[in-house]
Amino acid sequence: MRNLKKFLALVLAMVMAFSMMMTANAAHVGTQYGDEADVTPAFSEAVEVLTGMGVFQGDSGSFRPASNITRAEVAAIIYRL
User: Fold this and answer.
1) CA 52 centroid distance within chain
2) To the nearest whole percent, how much of the chain has pLDDT over 90?
3) φ and ψ at 59, to 5 degrees?
4) C-alpha span between 60 and 39 (Å, rounded)
5) What global pTM score does this model have?
6) What is the pLDDT of residue 31?
7) How far is the first Cα of the chain from the last one, in angstroms, to the nearest whole number?
8) Could you tell me if 38 and 63 are in contact, meaning their C-beta atoms sit under 8 angstroms apart?
9) Which helix (H) or strand (E) holds 75?
10) What is the 8-class DSSP label of residue 70?
């Protein structure tokens, strides 16, 4: 049991390290959405990183930052994470 806990801790640490590397290596692609001016400056970097990672994909060329998010959109984001 003790070895199992050590192994699980090692796996968790590796997953966390790899996820940080993916975030750090996400390409600075700029937003590709037509309504990128509506994204506040505080969140523009986060939108660019998550777009580069493929988590945010938008719909029909728009990001719609001011509208409410639907349950299906949340499920898609969680799946891509």
Assistant:
1) 8
2) 1
3) -140, 130
4) 17
5) 0.51
6) 53
7) 30
8) yes
9) helix 71-80
10) P
